[in-house]
């Protein structure tokens, strides 16, 4: 696995950078933005510009995640959907940014969920019965997984080799790792669903940069009008530059 | 303390298809009508404009047009011995919210139910005898036959600009249409939609096997059309953003741009949106509704006196308001008595995925909500119930509805769920996977019902509705039979691999299945087994009428919107021609 050392060092650097950004934010943003922004970190875009090196994408700045969480999510999405010869990976398409924004949104805060008690563990058929919102679930799940990973590997999830990350995610998927606070299947499935949503959704939400996943599978985007094409293209490949919402505004 | 408002003549609860049709038809009487809608006001412009409406995350994943569970939800259990727990996130079904209701985001499959589907009990007993009916099955006839509804079915199709091909025109069978449908007075208002590649394959395969394929009747207009009310519908773009979305072209028949704006042309009609109806208040003898209590968007409580109350909410809303207001006798599972909450049913969705050879292009992104080719050869009363051991049937179809990739990125079985192998598989599979689906009837049973939950309360402090439901042996047999047919058709279509599994699991509220919930306020001729009489009037409180699929005694293997619209038009005639002239009981109990 010749890629591993590269990807490891890249991620270690990323992690170190994120720590710096977070530390900076804590001292420079909070006194200005006030207590209301303390847990959402909104305003970081403006307060902490990270000038990109020439030819490089600017590093993402997160609204919701702290440095440890961002490092975990970046590593997780990069492992779930890696960059390879078939197409781009989730990390380069902005899926970590997508998840960060979703968790900071009404959805992440559970604004359309019923969250009143009593909370009782039901049958699988009765569905979700926790008191946690999606953002709380991911936040607690990251703490849980990192604690488990540290027990065995002495480092957090994001510092693992690619091989070890795959092994940990596989254990989570197969429910072979018991987590202290968050049911492992619920955590993994939410992380998985958010990753897929970020990879395939309209770029409007920060993921699927450049509509790259749409180009990869041959989905022509959201602007198609096919009344005169559905018959003409029966069993024929329909090729076009995909259009997104922003392209058509 | 509720602010008491000036009395009105008619209060309508819910402004989807059912409430919208009744509002439009009654507005011409000049009576003062107020409709209450729990959701927001909605119009094509600004709510459903392209390109923003083509947003899969917002509409299909975050369910922008669907009921907000934070405000109200229900509890669920599989059987009466279990503790029911709240549905905290959306899953199995997606009730609509906002002006237009589910009519804004439906697919547009627009059926007339067959003759047998209106008389499942007597039709079954005539042919097979009473002994074929399982003891716990509440099999019941509709109190009215297809013939009586035919003009209303016809009217509703014309309002929606339904695209299709008749298969039984005044008794004359027509090849290419559904030869098993009940006789129609008229052809569909618009010709069928254009078939996609998988539909052409399905049609040929079904014919090869001796079946009778036809285009699904679709309220997605195949051409620009002006309906009899003078409302223009645009031509369907086959854009692939239909089910779960509003339509920017007004090509999908929806009440928000057809009947509801026509109701608003009458100064005597008013809609109060973002208004949650809490309760219908009765007089001291509990024989007459006197008013409706509701909360406005700011949470202020109002009491709206009305002479006549029409419940036209979704199934769960109608049943919940009946139970919470004390209208009609609640169903009691232990004694198998009572009627409100009885006859709850659902629909069984099944089928197979079919993987075709590399180089096949189905272009799943070209399609519309109701674009499909269907067979009724195994639906309705076509199966031999005695031989097969179940009552009911399933429609079987293949359609092209959406290629939006958050929901649709299929892989062959055995593929990992993530990683490079998964990625390779989705790229290789996206264009060459299609499906043959089945949509089956579900009967009503003593053990499947709705009542009030003893523990959980909604955000307004009302006891939640409690759903008790599980699949029964009759439905397992029907699903398994339909699966076999789907497999045979998929193979005949030329699939390289047909992917399917036998499922005998319990009903789960977690995965989306269908928003075709029915029953709970069944209409009928016997007040011991129905909550409403044949005119959709409460047996107990004669100035309360209930319209919607909550009136169905059980469910068929096809979508419910056609009969919901037909019943709403019939109710409007009942009220205009009979009730409003001489208010009171229309049928003696």
End-to-end separation of chain B? 37 Å
What does the main sheet of chain A amount to? Answer: none
Q: Strand share of the residues of chain B? A: 15-25%
Number of contiguous helices of chain B: 13
Q: H/E element string of chain A?
A: HHHHHHHHHH
Q: Level of helix content of chain A?
A: 40-55%
Task: Report on the biggest sheet of chain B.
Answer: 8 strands, mixed
Spans of at least 5 consecutive residues with low confidence of chain B: none
- Shape assignment of chain A: globular
The helical percent of chain B reads: 10-25%
Q: What class do helices, strands and sheet pairing of chain B give? A: alpha/beta
Tell me the number of strands of chain A: 0
Oligomeric grouping of the chains: heterodimer
End-to-end separation of chain A: 44 Å
Radius of gyration of chain B: 23 Å
What is the radius of gyration of chain A? 20 Å
Question: If you average the pLDDT of chain B, what whole number results?
Answer: 97
Looking at the structure, what is the overall shape of chain B?
Answer: globular
How is this structure best summarized?
With 249 residues, chain A is mostly helical. Chain A contains 10 helices and no strands. The termini of chain A are far apart.
Describe this structure in words.
The complex is a heterodimer of chains A (249) and B (589). Chain A is an all-alpha fold and 249 residues long. In chain A, 47% of the residues lie in helices and 0% in strands. Chain A has ten helices and no strands. Chain A has helices at 3-28, 30-33, 44-47, 67-80, 95-103, 134-153, 162-173, 184-200, 212-217, 245-248. The longest helix of chain A has 26 residues, at 3-28. Chain A is globular. Chain B is an alpha/beta fold and 589 residues long. Chain B has helices spanning 17-27, 44-47, 56-61, 115-118, 120-128, 146-160, 197-208, 259-264, 315-325, 385-388, 420-429, 473-492, 561-579; strands spanning 3-4, 8-13, 33-36, 74-77, 85-86, 168-169, 172-173, 214-215, 225-226, 232-233, 269-272, 276-282, 289-295, 301-311, 348-355, 372-375, 394-399, 433-440, 449-457, 463-468, 497-499, 544-546. In chain B, strands 1, 2, 3, 11, 12, 13, 14 and 22 form an eight-stranded mixed sheet that branches. In chain B, a hairpin with a 5-residue loop joins strand 13 and strand 14. The model of chain B has no long low-confidence stretch (mean pLDDT 97). The interface between A and B is large, with 65 and 72 residues.
């Amino acid at each position: 696995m010749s890629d591993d050392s590269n990807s490891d060092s890249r991620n270690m650097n990323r992690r170190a950078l994120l720590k710096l950004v977070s530390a900076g934010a804590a001292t420079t943003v909070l006194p200005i933005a006030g207590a209301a922004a303390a847990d959402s970190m909104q305003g970081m875009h403006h307060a902490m510009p990270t000038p990109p090196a020439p030819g490089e994408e600017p590093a993402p700045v997160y609204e919701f995640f702290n440095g440890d969480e961002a490092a975990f999510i970046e590593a997780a999405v990069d492992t779930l959907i890696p960059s390879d010869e078939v197409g781009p990976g989730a990390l380069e398409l902005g899926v970590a940014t997508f998840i960060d924004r979703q968790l900071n949104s009404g959805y992440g805060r559970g604004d359309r969920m019923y969250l009143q008690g009593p909370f009782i563990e039901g049958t699988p058929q009765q569905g979700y019965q926790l008191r946690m919102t999606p953002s709380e679930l991911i936040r607690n799940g990251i703490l849980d997984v990192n604690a488990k990973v540290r027990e065995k590997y002495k480092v957090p999830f994001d510092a693992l080799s690619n091989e070890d990350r795959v092994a940990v995610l596989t254990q989570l998927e197969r429910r072979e790792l018991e987590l202290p606070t968050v049911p492992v299947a619920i955590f993994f499935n939410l992380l998985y669903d958010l990753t897929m949503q970020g990879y395939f959704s309209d770029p409007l939400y920060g993921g699927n940069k450049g509509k790259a996943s749409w180009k990869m599978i041959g989905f022509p985007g959201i602007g198609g009008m096919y009344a005169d094409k559905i018959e003409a293209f029966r069993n024929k490949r329909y090729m076009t530059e995909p259009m997104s919402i922003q392209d058509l505004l | 303390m509720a602010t008491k408002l000036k009395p009105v003549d008619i209060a309508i609860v819910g402004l989807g298809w059912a409430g919208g049709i009744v509002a439009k038809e009654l507005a011409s009487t000049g009576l003062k009508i107020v409709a209450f809608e729990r959701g927001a006001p909605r119009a094509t412009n600004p709510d459903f404009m392209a390109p923003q409406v083509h947003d899969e995350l917002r509409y299909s994943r975050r369910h922008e047009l669907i009921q907000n569970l934070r405000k109200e939800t229900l509890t669920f259990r599989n059987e009466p011995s279990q503790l029911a727990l709240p549905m905290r996130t959306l899953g199995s079904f997606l009730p609509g919210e906002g002006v237009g209701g589910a009519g804004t985001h439906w697919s547009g499959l627009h059926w007339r139910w067959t003759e047998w589907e209106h008389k499942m009990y007597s039709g079954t007993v005539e042919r097979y005898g009473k002994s074929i009916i399982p003891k716990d099955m509440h099999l019941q006839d509709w109190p009215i036959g297809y013939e009586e509804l035919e003009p209303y079915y016809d009217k509703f199709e014309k309002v929606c600009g339904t695209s299709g091909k008749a298969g039984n025109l005044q008794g004359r069978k027509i090849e290419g249409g559904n030869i098993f449908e009940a006789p129609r007075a008229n052809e569909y208002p618009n010709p069928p939609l254009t078939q996609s590649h998988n539909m052409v394959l399905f049609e040929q395969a079904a014919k090869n096997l001796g079946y009778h394929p036809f285009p699904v009747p679709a309220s997605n207009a195949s051409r620009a059309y002006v309906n009899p009310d003078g409302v223009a519908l645009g031509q369907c773009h086959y854009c692939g953003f239909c089910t779960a979305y509003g339509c920017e072209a007004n090509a999908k028949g929806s009440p928000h741009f057809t009947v509801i704006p026509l109701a608003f042309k009458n100064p005597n009609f008013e809609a109060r949106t973002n208004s949650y109806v809490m309760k219908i208040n009765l007089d001291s003898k509990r024989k007459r509704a006197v008013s409706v209590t509701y909360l406005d968007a700011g949470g202020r409580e109002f009491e709206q006196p009305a002479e006549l109350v029409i419940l036209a909410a979704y199934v769960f809303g109608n049943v919940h308001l009946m139970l919470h207001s004390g209208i009609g006798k609640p169903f009691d599972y232990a004694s198998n008595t009572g009627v409100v909450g009885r006859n709850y049913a659902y629909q069984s969705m099944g089928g197979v995925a079919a993987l075709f050879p590399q180089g096949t292009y189905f272009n799943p992104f070209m399609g519309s909500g109701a674009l499909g080719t269907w067979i009724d050869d195994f639906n309705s009363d076509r199966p031999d119930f005695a031989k097969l051991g179940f009552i009911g049937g399933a429609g079987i179809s293949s359609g092209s509805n959406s290629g939006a990739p958050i929901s649709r990125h299929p892989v062959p079985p055995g593929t990992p769920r993530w990683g490079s192998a998964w990625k390779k598989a989705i790229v290789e599979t996206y264009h060459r996977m299609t499906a043959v689906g089945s949509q089956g009837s579900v009967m009503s049973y003593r053990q499947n019902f709705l009542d009030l939950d003893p523990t959980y309360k909604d955000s307004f402090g009302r006891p939640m509705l409690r759903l008790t439901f599980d699949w029964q042996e009759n439905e397992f047999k029907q699903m398994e039979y339909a699966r076999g047919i789907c497999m045979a058709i998929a193979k005949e279509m030329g699939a390289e691999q047909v992917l399917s599994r036998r499922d005998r699991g319990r009903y789960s509220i977690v995965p989306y299945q269908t928003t075709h919930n029915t029953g709970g306020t069944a209409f009928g001729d016997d007040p011991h087994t129905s909550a409403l009489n044949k005119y959709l009037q409460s047996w107990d409180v004669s100035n309360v009428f209930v319209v919607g699929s909550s009136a169905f005694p059980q469910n068929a293997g096809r979508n419910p919107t056609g009969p919901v619209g037909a019943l709403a038009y019939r109710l409007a005639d009942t009220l205009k021609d009979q009730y409003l002239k001489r208010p009171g009981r229309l049928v003696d109990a």
